[in-house]
Write a structure and sequence with these properties.
Helix content: 40-55%
CATH superfamily of the largest domain: Aminoglycoside phosphotransferase (APH), C-terminal lobe
CATH topology of the largest domain: Aminoglycoside 3'-phosphotransferase, Chain: A, domain 2
Mean pLDDT: 93
Distance between the termini: 50 Å
Number of domains: 2
Strand order of the largest sheet: 1-2-3-5-4
Oligomer: single chain
Largest sheet: 5 strands, antiparallel
Strand content: 5-15%
CATH class of the largest domain: Alpha Beta
Shape: globular
CATH architecture of the largest domain: Alpha-Beta Complex
Structural class: alpha+beta
Number of strands: 9
Number of helices: 10
Low-confidence stretches: 57-61
Radius of gyration: 20 Å
Order of helices and strands: HEEEHEHEHHHEEEEHHHH
């Protein structure tokens, strides 16, 4: 099993995870450029999940297992649904890289319209409302009370992010694309004041939660590797990048809302505002920020492909990242003009 030293990891699991019974079966659930996630099946049928960094040379700061384990351990003490953190291994002699183990949570990742084909309109509305309610609950967590007060700087989140991704754009751009620079300029000029400090997930969307499709509920929030402290409205705006709006035609095939029968994004933002008391009048700015950041990330993937850093990956059409950069930048500009 690539990515798992079966004998060493099995021994560690038995020594450190309550109820773990060998022999174990390991199955890769998700992989690629992000952290690798494995389903672990014990001899008695008990399931766990193991997370480790991607294979090969990676930046430790970008795939910090101890940090991710710390976050879900802390969030797990609140009402926000996350898998239970069960154990952390920082001894690289065990598996060649740090890893952590969490509980297995049943559910479906709603990462495309086909995932909701069997869900009624009521269930689609229910899971959408719960997605925003869970986000509101996450943003209500007292970061000091749960031990995350030192996770990151608290203020100036968007300002730092715009500076960071502007630098990234200059380093990764493969052509002149004035719309990206124009959006960056407008983001700097129109930056709203940060409304408090919250746990900011950084990649909050249907594709990063496990949903109960029979009840229309979110069972667990996943993928905390981009989590930090910052402006809560950045997460709300990021959802707006993905949420399908027929008037905009911004269909993304890795989001289920394109299937229809989901509440309008604006209605969900107002639901969040009522639950949190936050002013959401500048939400267009945060949608623009989220789309622009994704545009820069997409250009970075395309640049690495052009320069041969991505290798040969069968079935991957990297030109879609080039066109995605353009489409996302235009979406960002439109959001700023509409704001």
């Amino acid at each position: 099993m690539q990515g798992i030293e079966v004998d060493k990891v099995s021994h560690w699991l038995q020594e450190h995870i309550a109820g773990a019974l060998a022999p174990f079966e390991f199955e890769l659930i998700t992989g690629g450029r992000s952290n690798l996630t494995f389903r672990v099946l014990g001899a008695d049928g008990t399931q766990f999940v193991l997370r480790r960094p991607p294979l090969g040379h990676v930046l430790a700061t970008a795939h910090d297992m101890a940090r991710e384990h710390r976050i879900i351990s802390a969030v797990g003490t609140t009402g926000v649904p996350v898998p239970r953190a069960l154990g952390l291994c920082t001894d690289e002699a065990v598996n060649g890289a740090p890893f952590y183990v969490m509980s297995f949570v049943e559910g479906v990742v709603l990462d495309g319209p086909e995932r909701v084909e069997q869900m009624s309109a009521d269930l689609r509305r229910g899971v959408a409302e719960h997605l925003f309610d869970v986000l509101a609950d996450l943003h209500a967590v007292d970061v000091d009370a749960v031990g995350l007060g030192t996770l990151a700087r608290r203020e100036g989140y968007v300002e730092r992010q715009v500076k960071r991704w502007s630098t990234q754009w200059e380093q990764s751009r493969t052509r002149q694309l004035p719309v990206v620079d124009e959006v960056a300029r407008l983001l700097r000029e129109r930056m709203p004041a940060q409304q408090g400090v919250s746990i900011a997930h950084g990649d909050y969307r249907f594709g990063n939660v496990l949903a109960d499709t029979n009840r229309g509920r979110v069972n667990a929030v996943l993928d905390w590797e981009l989590c930090t402290l910052g402006d809560p409205l950045a997460d709300v705006g990021y959802l707006g990048v993905y949420w399908f709006d027929p008037a905009l035609g911004n269909a993304r095939q890795n989001d289920p809302t394109v299937a229809g029968d989901f509440p309008p994004y604006g209605a969900m933002v107002q639901r969040y505002a009522q639950r949190t008391g936050r002013d959401v009048s500048d939400i267009g700015y945060y949608i623009a920020f989220g789309a622009w950041r994704l545009a820069v990330i997409s250009e970075g993937v395309y640049a690495r492909y052009l320069y041969g850093a991505m290798g040969q990956q069968e079935g991957v059409e990297f030109d879609i990242f080039r066109t995605a950069t353009e489409a996302l930048a235009e979406q960002a500009l439109a959001a700023l003009k509409a704001d």
